[in-house]
Amino acid sequence: MTERNVAFDLTLLTAAKGHGCRFVHDLDDLLWAIPLDNPNVDFFTPKILETMSAHMAACDALTVSTERLASELHRRGFQAAVVPNVLEPRDWLVQPRRTSRSRLRVGWYGQYAVHVSDLALLSAIVRELVDELDFVFLGDRPAGLGDLDARIEYHAAVPLSMFPAMLAALDLDLVLAPLAHNAFNESKSSLPILQAGMLGYAVIASAIEPYYGIPVTCVPNVPALWIAAIRERAHDRSSLQCEGETLRRFVHGSLLVDAWLDRYLAIWTGSTSAKHAPEPTFV
């Protein structure tokens, strides 16, 4: 993206608005605070962020997925409407096989190369528990575990359309959702947790803002505490399944797309009668 293209894009946007078009800008990450070990930080240069800010200022409405992200944007002079990330149930008709086994299948999934600091927590955990559990990684894996490659199940990322089926095929008992404490992560949504919930997977997550208020086990980023929480669940499979079903009911209760269509439509069209979906509950 060049300065010339930016000016051209803004000219087109302004002209289109003059003909009655309405523009809504959606933002799902705090792009001003990308961790340095995330390769995307090289793309979002100060000039690109300046360009994005100009586009946002020219739009009729701005939507974000979390209250924290809305607050961060407010500090930069932007007013944003919060509409959470939700799931389309027709994409999640698949379910895990729930195969009988003696060892717990514990998994992590995420985009390649962008979770270096998040995955770092799991290195010590895997080393401690690899003799007791089966670890499964989809998309990426912690660094420094090359000597354990033969003992860790790893799957490369798949196209988004295939992701629900792939996640179900992993047939996990427990999902690990670590997040490093930084402004970028604290502004993120709980989308990976919702995906786990659609499949009835129980979750242990970092004790960080995106995961508060969700029926998952939140643990400080201390490996010994995660190890203890994992072992506790490995010895109580029935409770683990109950945790997964509680999360499934939570997601189905109010975080599927149909519950938020009116809210999205009102913002997209500029209606003054924007409706809020019911607050998520632990039904």
Overall description:
Helix content is 39%, strand content 12%. With 283 residues, it is an alpha/beta fold. The chain folds into two domains: 80 residues, no CATH class; 165 residues, Rossmann fold (3-Layer(aba) Sandwich). The strands form two sheets. It has a six-stranded parallel beta sheet, with helices on both faces. A three-stranded parallel beta sheet has the order 1-2-3. β4, α4 and β5 form a beta-alpha-beta unit. The protein is globular. The mean pLDDT is 91.
Keywords:
283 residues, alpha/beta, Rossmann fold, 2 domains, 6-stranded parallel sheet, 39% helix, globular
The shape, in one word, is globular
Termini gap: 47 Å
- The poorly predicted ranges are none
CATH superfamily of the largest domain: Glycogen Phosphorylase B
Helix content: 25-40%
Number of separate domains: 2
Q: What's the architecture of the largest domain, going by CATH?
A: 3-Layer(aba) Sandwich
Multimer state: single chain
Widest beta sheet: strand line-up: 6-5-4-7-8-9
The average pLDDT value, as a whole number, equals 91
Q: Could you give the order of the helices and strands?
A: HEHEHEEHEEHEHHEEHHH
Largest sheet: 6 strands, parallel
Tell me what portion of residues adopts beta-strand conformation: 5-15%
Structural class: alpha/beta
- Supply Rg: 21 Å
What's the β-strand tally? Answer: 9
Kindly provide the name of the CATH class of the largest domain: Alpha Beta
Q: Count of helices? A: 10
Query: What is the fold named in CATH at topology level of the largest domain?
Result: Rossmann fold
